[in-house]
Predict the structure.
Amino acid sequence: MALFIDDLHRILQTHAAGKLADSSTLAQAQEQVDELLARYNGIAAAPEIFLGQSVQLKEGVDRSGVSHTVPIFSARLKQSLVAMLGQGPG
């Protein structure tokens, strides 16, 4: 799960940098996230976490007027993320 979050973070960083240069769309970033999930499903390293799950990217604006791309995790992915974060440092 930690590797998936790192990979997702890289996609979001690239999208944010592309938005600043007007060369990246939310649809392109969503396509990359979908491909990422497909790769994790393809290697079947943790099917109990990834199989049939999704991440939807949404654009949001905070109270300061700053635009953010926010990943919305499906239930099982969110549950796995919360469990991983709850473990704390090993």
